[in-house]
Amino acid sequence: MRIDIMTLFPEMCERVLDESIIGRARRNGIISVQCHNIRDYTCDKHRHVDDMPYGGGQGMLMKPEPINACFSAISAQCTSRPFLIYMSPKGRVFNQSIARELLEMENICLLCGHYEGIDQRIIDSMVDMELSVGDYVLTGGELPALIVTDAVCRMVPGVLAENVCFEEESHYSGLLEHPQYTRPPVWNGMNVPEELLSGHHEKIARWKRLKALEQTALYRPDLIDRAGLTSDEIKYLKDRQLL
User: Fold this and answer.
1) Distance between CA 234 and CA 73 in Å, rounded?
2) Does the model's pTM come out above 0.85?
């Protein structure tokens, strides 16, 4: 998988992408994530990437020419045209389902806006998807682009030690994750649940499923309808007044 990030602040992105699991995966060649400075594709000596919006209004707008030139250069490096995503508060709200969709793509390009955004003609003619990471406003698209990159790349085979590392996590299966414990078995008078210490795989799996259902019903009840509950699970949640 290859992901390209078009940004005015490539160093900001590189500092995050060079660290931890994603950084190691990049160094090992498991994933390719490259950052491109849009300012390198300007045509004037002052390297202007923004201008005043027609019709007036607050702030400046990113010009279309440097964005187009940057994307054309990236496309020339790829075997097929990258799927272009603009990080925008107007976009679809990013979730695990979208992350799995993007995982199936060979080349993804993430466009980070700044100022008051980008010229609408770029969106109309080039952008394949607009994505938001939540109902709030940030100073630029870099942090959202890094979130999308991390969420997608960690599912690439070989990035994590095993697929189970992400398959059992919150949202991947449509549920929140069950509570987790480590040593010591007793801490501050609180015990690790007996099921997890039993060594009985079926009991452990059932405990994890039921606790995941509890967490989801308690904290994200909007997700529980899609969980495919059995009659026993429905009774379990109703007995705990969670349904």
Assistant:
1) 54
2) yes
